[in-house]
Amino acid sequence: MTTTPVPPSLIATLPGHYYCDPEVFRQEQERIFESMWFCAVRSADLDKPGAFRTVQVGRENVIVTRGRTGALRAFLNVCRHRGARLCLEESGEIRRALRCPYHAWTYDLDGKLIAAPGLTGMPDVDRVEYGLVGVALREWLGYAWVCLAPQPPSFEETVIGAAVERLGDPAAIEHYGTEELALGRRITYDVKANWKLIVENFMECYHCATIHPELTDVLPEFTDGYAAQYYVGHGAEFGEGVKGFTVDGSEGFDRLPEVTADQDRRYYAITVKPTVFVNLVPDHVILHRMFPLAEDRTVVECDWLYAPEVVASGADVSKSVELFHRVNSQDFEACERTQPAMSSRAYRRGGVLVPTEHHIGSFHEWLLGSLGVRPRRGTGGSRA
Hints:
By secondary structure, the chain is an alpha+beta fold. The chain is built from eight helices and 18 strands.
């Protein structure tokens, strides 16, 4: 079969099966989600010893809990005896110890096996060796990041490095003081689309003039499809007459204390592969965490973070929340509109990227490299 060459102004996307094939998703679970640092839990949500949350990381379920010393720990949510899941709830509090509901094997908050029926009669059982399987954990931006890999990649290079690469200044993201901010609002979206469609959507603004009228009113340069988040050090400037990053452009809150004059009235967006988006504006931070659950389903948890005094005062944050909530809803509807076509014969060989989307090709190359697939040179993706 002959194919029409892709003209120079277009580059090829991934073929459709990369977005709907369960086997591709299984490989992504193994080689990406279970091998990289994964943003799991907001640290402040686990506000006292015994507080826990369970999260799905690839094919594994992970418990993140705060220990008696105040440090966060992460473990696979699996009893070492017969493999029963220990915690069925998404969140809660472990009052004394973590007890398996099947045979009552019991673990302390450090993962050590501390009790089991007949355990005293088995003195050869090492209580540390048969404790819970630990998971690597780091804290950054006020969130707990976990990694299932036996030898995790460098956190500084693969996570913090994404912010440095985008902003061009190692200290720039620190000016927002995200670790000290308070949660003003959280919205969870259950999106019937592949996680890569959501990432690609976030990476480009070719669609902004079509579906984001509120956003382009605040950030007029997005009208031309300009993906400001992919130009080092550049932040999209608020439009003339726009007072704040709000749904109607009205005034927001005081600028965060360490945000510089150069960062004022600007919007910065950062993608931390594989599943985190960080949005920075002068008076708050918006952080998205994606939890890919199937080849056609992704849960996205979005946090709006403000200065602690703003939240403590009971200030109305609805106008700033509403702006990006609309953006999210518009984006996710577009992704859900796209998902069914991924299995269509019309998209069997994929689609194309116009010049303002060409940077998505580097995401495709990263993905294919992670899966051990060699992309065809110059296409930005594989036609295999």
